[in-house]
Amino acid sequence: MHVANKLGLTSLKDMQASTGAVYDVDTELSGTIFSQATRHANPSVTNINENQFEVNEALLVETIAFYVKNATGEVENFQNIYGSNAVIVFDLIIGNKRTMKDTPVFASGSPFVFANTANFTATSGEINYQSFLPRHQVFMEGAGILIPPQVQWYVQYTIYNVVTGAIIAPTDATALGCYLFGTKVNLNFNTSI
Amino acid sequence: MSQVSKLSFVDGKLGAPTSGQQTTRVLFNTIEAPGTTSSLTFFRSFQGLTNGQTNLTQNKLDSMESMVIKTIWLAQYATDGSLVDFGGFGFPQQTVSIIVGNQTVVKNLPIHFNQGQNGQAFDRLHENAGVRNQSLFASANIQNVMPCEIRLLTDIVIPAQVAFEVRVDSNSGVYGTGAVVCALAGYGKIFSAGNSF
Description:
heterodimer; B: 4-stranded antiparallel beta sheet
């Protein structure tokens, strides 16, 4: 509400407080996520029609997560596809402002997050072994970041090999997806209609 | 005191501006092919590293930027990209120190308890760090260990334009020919032009 008041969004406090998440996949392999959501199928690729919220809707981002969406549309674990040595370096841009800067998300399991012990089939039909499938998330430390209504946002990213420093290019079968999760404000007509 | 309050308090004491964009900051630095050594120093050398190996160009934050260190994260990779035991097989005993300016703010904190199958992490969150599948042959895509992470109980501030570094000491740790990475994460402020421009 502090940011909303600063922005002159006086009616935001009358709206429905909720929990929400937005997601999208960079199927164009352009290095940005959310910016081309308008062209993506809903909900198989994204759950937004455009990369800005309607009047009186907003999201306080408290968790950012990355995943891989393969060519058949399945969600995959980033480490399992790109390898432990991959790292996503991303920015979160809201309007004209860079609100997260050069933030790394390590395939091997980033700071703040831990892993699931998952079955991995080494050879089809043979014994399953347990390996780690790390999580690829950033939990906002201390303060969330508000995406206000009617302001465009997007995530800009590059994937690197942290050992060699080389850039790893995604493919159609390894497109990178992202979700932003947090406290959501939904439009509420109660006071006006 | 929360991370936000601590950073405001320290910035205020130092007379640093507090108008920056609030965010979550993760600084990282890589040492390529460190080999066998008794001392590693992260955030000292940035030469030849790409944006995928570090997100700084010098060992200090820019003017108008500051952050709180809440988490120390360490990882070791083999040349084939697989994540391996930090410091060599069997997790030899190692300590980490963080130096900010002239002050050692974290001194000889043991890290080996926080990784490996026999590790008992300082906090209660890292159950998986204490698990290792011995029968699993690790590769880049099959990970059988987790990186080492220590969550600090106190909030350590890195103010603007103050040099800092992270030192890991061991008795001939085997860090290999791949790379080792250190990340420091927590709440931070980044430069924001705001109404100034």
